[in-house]
Amino acid sequence: MLIIATLSSRALARHSNPLLVGGPARPAAGALALAAPAGAHLTYYGGRVVSNIQVVQVLYGTGSYLPQVSTTSSPSMATFYQGVLNSPYVDWLNEYNTNIIAAGGTAGTNQSIGRGSFTARYAITPSTANNHSTIDDSNIENELAAQIQAGNLPLPTTDAAGNPNTYYAIFFPHGKTITLGGSASCVAGGFCAYHGTIAAIPGLGEIYYGVHPDMQSGSGCETGCGSAATAFGNYTSVASHELVETITDCEVGIAQFLAPPLAWYDNANGEIGDICNGQQGSVVGSDGVTYTVQKEFSNLANSCIVTNGASPTPTRTPNFTNTQTGTRTATRTGTVTPTITQTATPTPTPVNTATRTPTAPSTGTVTSTNTQSPTLTPSPVNTPTQTPTPANTGTVTSTNTQSPTLTPSPANTATQTPTAASTGTATPTNTQFPTVTLTPTATQTPTATNTATTTSSPPLSATATITATKTETPTPTSTFQVDGTISYYRGAQGVSGVNISVLGASLPQTTTGVDGSYRVPGVTSGNWQIAPRKTGDQGAAITALDAAYVLEALAGHRQLDPQQTLAADVTGDGILDESDVQRILQYSVGLLPQLPAAELCASDWLFVPAPVPPATPIAPSLTGSTCQPGALAFPPLVGDATGENFQAILIGDVTGNWR
How far apart are the C-alpha atoms of 420 and 445, rounded to whole Å? Predict the structure, then answer.
């Protein structure tokens, strides 16, 4: 028998949880504990989790934003989401898979938690009604739903079983106060951020979102929402709190009891992030950048952790205190190598950056196999000593006692070209594009040129003149790889046989595989586009039912989402009317060999881009005389571009039942 118990005094709001914060709302007083509360344990109540979260970053109107919030260059919130979602910070969350029986005896949702991705950053223009100096959660929900329905934000995606995967992370400019259930942002007793749920909207399903008030100086959140060295560090810490809570308890905003749709929850301490509120650590993202994150609670470890495997030593933030004004302070401690006396522990540049200061001629080799960022601590005699973090491997072998000149080369390999009689090689195995702080210098190579003067009779005499010439090491042309997946706009099934062209580059065309994945190698740095196209493969997807959907929409009895609207405009004139109904019917019975929009586009399919920075989307559009089937535009690359995905739409398939 299912027993429905009510929640404790930590009552949930209708669509969001005021306790999902990283700031002055919790704890009420006293120092912040370094360990989880005694007896903390997350119980599964039967609700959904997020299988492979896809983050859409939203800037809520114009105004002053922290530069790392409003841009996509590294490091930024965009690179944070992409890098951290593809790191060990997420891998251990599979202990919260839902292929189990819930506390009330009901079956779980049978979901497995895996890595996620960053979709894109969007700037919206909110309506005046939803954009005052004080913005309530109800305004945010209304505006978010309206922006998605208007096509200004991408539609939520789902996993193979139809569970939502998309998370809209909404950031607000300076000067905006957010209110939620009688509480306010960045004030004593308020909150730093929260995440919520919008109940199912016709054509959209459930919407998961996070609210991030401004945390710049003067906001009120700059001192109460973390103790990182920078405002950006506190942003990422708070963002990681809400991100992981969304993954493990995405429907909390509509939960009212200790039962579905609530997922993983501790009725005494809250969600996975609340248990470890404010305890910061760090993790190296897939981009090689070290990001500040909040620790999360692990049932298996019975502790607050960053990862359950190899990772950099997290920065602990004890002595976090609350005052009556809601301002928190923290005393930070660092790890000091016992043999070294120094005033500060230097923070190493992420991704295999090593500093060597040898003396006297010899040869040496530095080989690093660690994929994390080691801490290099020089000993008194200037011999490189490596102090790796737990479960991290790294080897430094060197007999070189002369300062070599380090010249970083492309493809993530740093090569030492030493002067005089010294040679050295550093070969990291990290496959990410590194941040290299070594200063390349031209290598001078003495070249002998013989000038001889001879006489006509023996003995032969010669005068040799040796001239040293300067030779600069040539820089080879860098090439990169672009890859992604093309899946159908309903059901997320991979679409095979899509031709991928690189416009603006002399590269051969490639085709998506059976799973919809594609890979374009050998791309040079430059301005160009990825342009997918596909003809045929309609199967029996386009029928009279698609025409009926359009008729119902014209009569006001059905609401089509933006993807369905693109599929329905089979005349390609940008307008839905009776002529679209007629063309679909004619095509379904074989009277038309090809739909007019498909002929105009030279493609039976359209492609909605879901890019990862630095790519920018070029949305599909039809105007009657021109067609843009959809593409991704790229600026000059500095590394591989991965996860550059598209949603495919078969023109005419309004019901979305292809295959």
Answer: 10
> Where do the structural domains in the chain lie, given as residue ranges?
43-329, 479-650
pLDDT of residue 107: 92
In angstroms, the CA 310 to CA 88 distance is 8
Residue listed under structure tokens 């896809």: 54
Among 305, 368, 279, 291, residue whose Cα is nearest residue 91: 305
The residue with greater pLDDT, 203 or 85, is 85
**pLDDT of 60 strictly over 80:** yes
What three-state secondary structure class fits 298?
A: strand
- Provide the β-strand partners of residue 322: 328
CB 631 within 8 A of CB 645: no
Contacting residues for 322 by C-beta, under 8 A, at least 6 apart: 24, 27, 28, 29, 30, 328
Q: What is the 3-state secondary structure (H, E, C) of 116-142?
A: CEEEEEEEECCCHHHCCCEEEHHHHHH
**Which sign does the torsion angle of CA 573, 577, 580, 582 carry?**
negative
* Cα angle 252-257-260, degrees, rounded to a multiple of 5: 65
From the list 356, 225, 362, 371, the residue with the least C-alpha distance to 284 is 371
Alpha helices of 133-259 — where are they, by DSSP H? 137-149, 231-248
d(CA 252, CA 263): 7
Q: 156, 167 in Cβ contact below 8 A?
A: no
Q: Could you give the C-alpha distances from 82 to 120, 209, 319, 431, in angstroms and in order?
A: 10, 17, 31, 16
Per-residue DSSP letter, 328: E
**Dist. CA 431–CA 277, nearest whole Å:** 33
What are the tens digits of pLDDT across the range 392-420?
333 333 333 333 333 333 333 333 433 33
- Are 612 and 642 in contact, with CB atoms under 8 Å apart? yes
